[in-house]
Amino acid sequence: MSATALILNGVLAVLLVVALVFGWRLERRLKALRDSHAGFAKAVADLDVAAARAEQGLADLRAATDEASEALADRIERATALAAKLDERLNRPMVTPPPASPAAPVARRDEPAAARVERRLKAEDFERLLDREAQVSRPVESGIRPSTPKETPRSRARVDDDLFEGPAEPPSPGSSFRARR
Prior knowledge:
Blueprint: H1 3-91, H2 123-137, H3 153-163
């Protein structure tokens, strides 16, 4: 073999080695691209699952909102009806009972409400009643203050629930409205 053939074979071998190196680097890059494509496909699948869950959550939230609005509408209707009843009772004219005779029977709680004499307080009577209760409930001048209950969301909720309950039995003439709970 001549020297030119050896040189050409050497150059060809070097070119083959360079091509192998480039092919190996290209294979690594293609492998990385395939892996990133698989990761991208997995990310898209996860995103699709998350979107489906979000849609289901929105549907559940919409259903809960509809249910809550229906319940609220019912409560508002009941509150309106109770407010109308209360307004009707407050606007009734005050009926004064006939003078009591010693032989007249005393009204009992088990009598029907129609048989009892309805009584309505005037604003001045109500203010006097509140002043009297305030005087009675004042602590003795011993320096001890009565503990006042803290208003919490739970106690406020109990008061709100009382607003939506049906009418309670009317209080007896001598009872305090604050005593009932």
